[in-house]
From TrEMBL:
Residues that hold heme according to the record: 455
Phylogenetic lineage: Eukaryota, Metazoa, Ecdysozoa, Arthropoda, Hexapoda
Known cofactor(s): heme
This protein's name: Cytochrome P450 3A12
Cited CDD domains: CYP6-like
InterPro entries, sorted: Cyt_P450, Cyt_P450_CS, Cyt_P450_E_grp-I, Cyt_P450_sf, Insect_CytP450_Detox
A GO term from the CC aspect: endoplasmic reticulum membrane
Keyword Membrane listed: yes
Length: 511
């Protein structure tokens, strides 16, 4: 089972199947209808059963909410409400309302933590991605400072080198001769792990140097692997329902080898004797350590230093673990299918390379515009994240209506719904990078979200994706291979679905 499917299954089991909630459905359903309809809001009913039915039919949560988005669009509504598993869901479609929720009035909304809350998980609950309130705010401010464009510039040489390593890896794969084409998904995965290992953990992970899995690949391969074992499915439920006991007994969803791996990096930083250290430019491990000292160092009731550093290093590598390789391999896929776009992009890459004395540098790469358009169009059609969620924490009167969103209601924004809405993106099924030429797509194109909780890694992602494309296109022509899935499978004739780990393309050396 792919990681995404596992997460989806996990989420669905612990979110949908506690059918104890059914009694809430029976009791609350009439009230919920009244709650929405008396305020003039379109009500789509209780979708619990429909969601489970779709889930069993293999429709993921992302695709399901896109279908719901399209129902709201057909009804010509700006937003709608529905109920599921005892919760009220609010589904905005209007870009200005989405902007208000994510940015202008963001103080009314927090993290969705009622569904699969990991508060009881002693490890992940310490990381930024699960932190709440003041702890989140302060930690985020510190971590964000390591991912600004000027800090990312300091990582340029490292990433550039990994671009060269990616080319060397692909050349070795080609020399082996394979009929199926290159597993570009795997190459992108190795490249991403090496970039994250070096820029975030100060480690030389060497994944692109080996054909088989490197140490970090093996360790990360354990992520959620325990869910292949039926008996381990008890863990999330236990953590969810008995958080105190789970914390006391140090229960975590994360495999113990992964925890050990991050603890080792944390210990190395604390002893200041990490033998794998590759330089202290934009040293993120040090920053995480100093954040702990600043926020908790003097507190009596402080989280364990090594655990906190390890959890936060883990928490900053999780968000890019599958998303970034998905983006890079989907770029390769669309370029293989659109030779005209590939040629135009290669011209830009070569011009940048040649006008800088036969090298890439940060300033020149930042000036490239077509590469941004290609990446953005890939993100629009194949967004690695499909949904944004918020929970209302302070009553919110929806502008222009008499409807007030209540505390505890969940807001879901369907990115696929927005990205494939022909009202905002003409001919949305057509891959056309030109649609991003100088046009403002604010709040109709949100692959990294916007506002206080938006993606911290955006500049790093863009830089590493550009460098992968620059190096690959200078050296290879990408074409479909016998194993490239064409056409992609379409769900509801709307969204292409593909497992990014199995993106095969042909790479032909450019002499
Ligand atoms: C193509 C790759 C990526 C995509 C599409 C992506 C997208 C997103 C999205 C949509 C969110 C949720 C924002 C929200 O709820 O409003 C998010 C959160 C986050 N991302 Fe990324 N991400 C990517 C890679 C990365 C990488 C490489 C990093 C590591 C530096 C990263 C760090 C984070 C963090 C820390 C958060 C949570 C922020 C918070 O809760 O305050 N992401 N990302």
């Amino acid at each position: 089972m792919a990681l995404g499917d596992k997460i989806n299954t996990l989420f669905s089991i612990y979110f949908i199947f506690p059918l104890a909630k059914v009694y809430l459905y029976l009791i609350r359903n009439p009230k919920t209808r009244e709650y929405f309809e008396s305020n003039g809001i379109l009500y789509l009913g209780d979708v619990s059963v429909d969601y489970v039915k779709n889930f069993i039919d293999g429709i993921s949560g992302t695709k399901y909410w896109m279908k719901v988005y399209n129902r709201i669009k057909q009804a010509n509504a700006d937003l709608a409400g529905c109920a599921m598993a005892g919760y009220n869901f609010v589904l905005p479609r209007n870009p200005s309302l989405i902007k208000a929720i994510l940015v202008k009035d963001a103080s009314h909304f927090g993290r969705v933590d009622t569904l699969l809350s990991l508060k009881g998980d002693y490890f992940v609950s310490k990381s930024l991605i699960f932190a709440q309130g003041e702890a989140w705010k302060k930690t985020r401010a510190k971590f964000e400072s390591a991912f600004t464009p000027s800090k990312i510039k300091q990582n340029f040489d490292q990433v550039n080198q990994f671009g060269k390593n990616l080319v060397a890896y692909l050349n070795r794969e080609l020399d082996r001769g394979t009929k199926a084409g290159i597993n570009f998904g795997l190459a992108a995965h190795k490249y991403t792990l090496d970039v994250a290992g070096s820029t975030t953990l100060n480690l030389n992970t060497g994944s692109l140097q080996t054909r088989g899995p490197s140490h970090i690949e093996q360790v990360w391969g354990k992520f959620f692997v325990s869910f292949d074992n039926f008996w381990n499915w008890w863990k999330p439920g236990f953590i969810q329902w008995f958080p105190r006991i789970a914390t006391y007994f140090k229960i975590t969803l994360v495999d113990k080898e992964i925890v050990q791996f991050y603890r080792h990096v944390a210990k190395g930083e604390m002893n200041n004797s990490n033998e794998n250290e590759v330089g202290d430019k934009n040293n993120f491990v040090q920053l995480v350590h100093s954040t702990w000292q600043e926020l908790y160092g003097r507190h009596v009731d402080r989280p364990d230093e090594e655990e906190w550093i390890a959890a936060n290093l883990f928490g900053m590598t999780v968000p890019g673990y599958q998303t970034t390789p998905t983006l890079i391999s989907m770029c390769a896929y669309v370029l293989a299918l659109h030779q005209d776009v590939q040629d135009k992009l290669r011209d830009e890459v070569n011009a940048t390379f040649e006008s800088n004395g036969g090298e890439f540098n940060y300033a020149a790469v930042s000036q490239m515009s077509y590469v941004d358009m290609v990446i953005n169009e890939t993100l629009r059609m194949h967004s690695p994240v499909g949904l944004l969620g918020r929970m209302c924490t302070k009553e919110y009167p929806v502008p222009g209506t008499k409807y007030v969103i209540k505390v505890g209601d969940i807001i879901l924004i369907s990115l696929y719904g927005l990205h494939y809405d022909e009202e905002y993106h003409e001919n949305p099924q057509v891959f056309n990078p030109e649609r991003f030429s100088g046009v403002n797509k604010d709040f109709t194109f949100l692959p990294f979200s916007q506002g206080l909780k938006s993606c911290i890694g955006i500049w790093m992602v863009m830089m590493q994706t550009k460098m992968a494309l620059c190096h690959v296109l200078r050296n290879f022509r990408l074409t479909p291979s016998p194993d490239t899935l064409i056409p992609m499978k379409f769900v509801n004739s709307q969204v292409p679905v593909m497992d990014p780990e199995k993106v095969f393309v042909n790479c032909t050396k450019i002499e």
